[in-house]
Amino acid sequence: MELGIIGLGRMGANMTERLLQGGHRVIAYDRSPEAIQRCVDTGALGAHSLADFVKQVTAPRVIWLMVPSGNPVDTTIEQLLPNLFKDDIIIDGGNSYYKDSIRRAEKLKQQGIHFIDVGTSGGIWGLQVGYCMMVGGDRAIVERLQPIFQTLAPENGFAHVGDSGAGHFVKMVHNGIEYGMLQAYGEGFEMLKASQFDFDLAKISHLWNQGSVVRSWLLELAENAFQKDPQLSSIKGYVEDSGEGRWAVLEAVEREIPAAVLTLSLFARYGSRQESSFSAKVIAALRNEFGGHAVRKE
Predict the structure, then answer these.
(1) d(CA 70, CA 249)
(2) Looking at beta carbons, which pairs linking 180-183 to residues 24 or more positions away fall under 8 Å?
(3) How far apart are alpha carbons 94 and 104 in whole angstroms?
């Protein structure tokens, strides 16, 4: 098939390369000329403006967006719209909020343009092993796009999960679960490191992946990380969040679901960003006041 991809960061560029390896014709666009050139070097056709991009993609067009969530998605769609026609397809493969995807699908439908939301997981390893894709939107359009999904995903690695917004809803929950899993691994390895034993954390990571109930790809990645830097001394304990965890917690509140682990793992990320936690200072001061417990001076 032929499609155009807008957004050639790590995910977008790797997806472009995997599609090219699968025999698809890809027109690539990014605000960065260097990013475009890297994709051209792998076999893509480069476009150096959105107008040029739309001209190169054959109608009815399939346009895959891999841009940051929020305003960048809306802005890109608004810039594309004047040059799009009925039966063109826009796919949002980024980490968008599912309510935004529902809104975009409804708006584009009024102009005869199809919108498909694809929750995409796989990170930088997707080029090699494929991407897990959670697809929302009209089933007939999803079936039309099946050759693209079959190339990008490993075997059984994509599914149509529901109507517009469903793909990004499933990805939101997926990332909420991911937050909890990462937090559990982080706390467990901290306990091992703080013990009186001189544990080889890479060795334990590998051991736990041999039939243990906590075996996972994340443990394989932990083993890799500990092999490179056994004490993780080169890494600062600052953990960012890209939005889905927050949305998952808000959804849990809205639906009155007791998602305690997901919520606490999100708050733990906020805590990781504080050089000196004022709330911890308050707690230490109060413990000193009511119990005479010692405080550490800065």
Answers:
(1) 18
(2) 180/261, 180/262, 180/265, 181/216, 181/218, 182/218, 182/265, 183/261, 183/264, 183/265, 183/268
(3) 14
Model pTM?
0.92
| Residue 147: Cβ within 10 Å count | 14
Residue type for 164, please? S
CB 8, CB 66: distance < 8 Å: yes
The neighbour count for residue 132, using CB atoms within 10 Å, is 19
Active site residues: 171, 178
Q: Hunting for tokens 């605000």 — which residue is that?
A: 31
pLDDT at 74 over 90: yes
Q: Where residue 298 falls among pLDDT bands split at 50, 70, 90? A: low
Both tokens of 224, joined, read 């890799």
Give, to the nearest 10 degrees, the angle between helix 166-194 and helix 260-272: 60
Instruction: Note whether 222 and 235 are within 8 A (CB).
Output: no
Taking a C-beta distance cutoff of 8 angstroms, is the pair 185, 192 a contact? no
Distance, in Å, from the CA atom of 69 to the CA atom of 287, rounded to the nearest integer, reads 43
Amino acid at 264: L
Chain segment 230-246, per-residue pLDDT in tens: 988 888 888 888 789 99
- d(CA 219, CA 225) in angstroms, rounded, equals 10
Which residues pair with residue 132 across a beta bridge?
Answer: 121
